[in-house]
Amino acid sequence: NKATMAIDRRYVAGEIDNRLYGSFVEHLGRAVYEGIYEPGHPLADERGFRKDVMEMVRELQVPLIRYPGGNFVSGYNWEDGVGPVSERPRKLDLAWLSTETNEIGTNEFMEWCKAVGAEVNMAVNLGTRGVDAARNLVEYCNHPGGSYYSDMRIAHGWKDPHNIKTWCLGNEMDGPWQIGRKTATEYGRLAAEAAKAMRWVDPSIELVACGSSSQTMDTFADWEATVLDHTYDYVDYLSLHSYYGNRSGDSANFLAKSLDMDSFISSVISICDYMKAKKRSKKKIMLSFDEWNVWYHTGADNPNRWAVAPHILEDVYNLEDALVVGTLLITLLKHADRVKIACQAQLVNVIAPIMTEKGGAAWKQTIFYPYMHVSVFGRGTVLQSQVTSAKYDSKDFTDVPYLESVAVLNEEAGEVIVFAVNRHLEEALELDCDLRSFEGIALLEYIVMDHDNSKAGNSAGSPNEVAPRQGSGAALSDGKLTVRLPKHSWNVLRFK
Ligand code: AHR
Asked: Which UniProt keywords apply (predicted)?
């Protein structure tokens, strides 16, 4: 089982926008309440934010967090979440059949993001609401003062504008599960008009139009084309969403699913560029993969109707899931020239790298680690590497390389980083990597995450069962690296 990589500093595949390492916090289950916010918890700060959770989010160096949904946003009135907390309404959230207390709203979430060093990717409600609520929210958040909504923010205690740069025009508007679902034409028109008005309030903002809620929707591709036909001149990004799972217990097939993400991205690029040609436009639409992850251990049902912060979508991840997350991150990086924003869905408790117990511990799931490594080390430019690898066929894919890898040049840190997954379930992979274009380069660190049992995971009682360790046996001589990547493993090689 062998593979080779040749990396040359002269061949750049794409500049990485740091927002590629975004995440997502939705008012869903225990993501907000009992997740980021739990007043009364021994580790809560004076605002009620859990310090242990904040610390882990900082470790991930999350640059951007999508908020407040997701499906939730399509029924959300942002005005319910601002002003004195005691006056905020308790509302039925029809997306997750829960009760929303509105204790946390826009301003509190902005405060929390500031504390963890992240920007917000704010979604507006284009399900039950429209242009007016959207432009008012931009005014509330971004206008310095001297107008009705900006003065309202100041009166609520936030003197300085939040200056939110990235905005989503609704969420998954093609989905039958969405409150206020629309046809592509209905949505395209609404998104264009909302975008116009929002940008009139603040010309500096960037806007994301909704693509299909997944590649498997019957309307996929037509939806994208129609929406872009209406919005092309007004938006900067088109969104993609995709979740992957292993319901049939076919691990070889599951581990190949990043190939699906790869072809999904290529298809959406083609549609964007077709619309560019059709419109004779000079502008290129970029991609925002603003929901992606492994999600299949739990469903979306809430058996605890109208509960506050019910335990839903609390997937417990294993090593195999982390490897898939690693391959998905590598795939996003390979498309860094067009995918400028991506949000792992989600951040805390809900299909998340971080889990918490009410009143108790917080711990890192297996998927925390590839996300952290790529976010922390993978800044700069993606280099085009030449890769050969032994391959296999699985149920849905042919020619799946055992090696999934990407190389990043971080000029600021003076580092080259290789991220690699060995998909093989039984055998190690002998990797030869040619780095001769980097004169005098040395191996700084080899990190590996593996486990004998690919189904092993972490829990409150056993938080470090699956965690990265220092790898051994990597040798670099005359610019040529040889390393043995263990079976089903996640690997990070740092060179300086
Ligand atoms: O991330 C969970 C949900 O998945 C989001 O609310 C929705 O947009 C998607 O269907």
From this structure: Carbohydrate metabolism, Glycosidase, Hydrolase
Residue owning the nearest CA to atom 5 of ligand 1: 70
- Classify residue 19 as exposed, middle or buried by CB count within 10 Å of its CB (0-12, 13-18, 19+): buried
- Local confidence pLDDT in tens for the 496 residues of the chain: 999 999 999 999 999 999 999 999 999 999 999 999 999 999 999 999 999 999 999 999 999 999 999 999 999 999 999 999 999 999 999 999 999 999 999 999 999 999 999 999 999 999 999 999 999 999 999 999 999 999 999 999 999 999 999 999 999 999 999 999 999 999 999 999 999 999 999 999 999 999 999 999 999 999 999 999 999 999 999 999 999 999 999 999 999 999 999 999 999 999 999 999 999 999 999 999 999 999 999 999 999 999 999 999 999 999 999 999 999 999 999 999 999 999 999 999 999 999 999 999 999 999 999 999 999 999 999 999 999 999 999 999 999 999 999 999 999 999 999 999 999 999 999 999 999 999 999 999 999 999 999 999 999 999 999 999 999 999 999 999 999 999 999 999 999 9
Contacts 24+ apart (CB under 8 A), 248-254: 248/395, 250/394, 250/395, 251/320, 251/425, 251/454, 252/392, 252/394, 252/400, 252/423, 252/425, 253/394, 253/395, 253/396, 253/397, 254/320, 254/324
* Entry pTM: 0.98
| Active-site annotation holder among 34, 139, 224, 291 | 291
Q: Mutation test of ligand 1: which of 32, 71, 214 has the most ligand atoms closer than 8 Å to its C-beta? A: 71
> Is residue 59 flagged as an active site residue?
no
| DSSP structure class, residue 457 | B
Give the ligand 1 atom nearest the CA of 28: 6
291 is catalytic: yes
CA of 170 to the centre of ligand 1 (A): 12
* Ligand 1 center to 71 CA (angstroms): 6
Measured in whole angstroms, how far is the alpha carbon of residue 88 from the centre of its chain?
30
Q: Which of 23, 172, 239 to mutate to test the pocket of ligand 1 (most atoms within 8 A of CB)?
A: 172
Q: Can you list the positions of beta strands (E) in 265-414? A: 286-294, 339-344, 354-356, 362-364, 381-389, 391-392, 400-401, 403-410
Q: Considering only CA atoms, which residue is closest to atom 4 of ligand 1?
A: 70
Catalytic residue among 26, 79, 108, 172: 172
User: ipTM beyond 0.90?
Assistant: yes
